[in-house]
Amino acid sequence: MMSTQHICANTNFYLNKKFEFQSLLAINPVKRLFFFVFRHSKQHFIQTVLPNIKHSLSLALQRFYPFAGHLIRDRQHRSTNIKPEIFYSDGGSVSVTVSESDSNFEQLTSSHARDVNEYNPLVPVLISKPDLVSPLTTLLVTLFPNSGAEDPLVLYESPLPFFDRSVIKDPKGLEMLYLNQLPVFEQSAKSYGLAIAPTDEIRVTFVLGRPEIDKLKQWVAKKTFEKI
């Protein structure tokens, strides 16, 4: 690890998670891995690319500051039913960690079968705090000397940039139904996502060209028509 910094957004702010999002909180957060070919020196990366990444993230958080918040349990629902909400306070930030790896960049970005365990060190962990489920977003930038860079993003599903929750009506009480089932979802979802513990799984990339995509569309259309 080379460094860890916190990029801040620019008022305390609460945003309730509506019932249609609550079942998604039971599963592991979304994890994205982006690989880029970067055949420049580490010094160039630190002096040029990294400042641009942090500046871009800072600008984005000014408009989408809930991403710098946390998932927190509703203060008025401490018993069986817990209503999740996003909490952002002034000075909230997203953790950005920069590290260097001696792993084989070509191997990690190839299409053939690869060992899943090779990717675990490249995925940051959302560290929970007391009374908070977890930060919403964290970022880890890994540099492969003279090969490339990998930029993984881990985040919980976040709402669209529209904060008026009152426009979503719940005449049938689905919110309480989801809240009552949330502990069950959480229990069943513990094994989801990219495993941190050693595993014998492999990862394979399938590359589809336009001809293959067109054939898939035709196949789906045919199967759909047969069911009508």
UniProtKB/TrEMBL annotation:
InterPro entries: CAT-like_dom_sf, Plant_metabolite_acyltrans. Pfam families: Transferase. The keyword Transferase applies. Keywords: Acyltransferase, Transferase. One of its GO terms (molecular function) is acyltransferase activity, transferring groups other than amino-acyl groups. It comes from the Eukaryota. PANTHER family: PTHR31625. This is Uncharacterized protein. It comes from Stephania japonica.
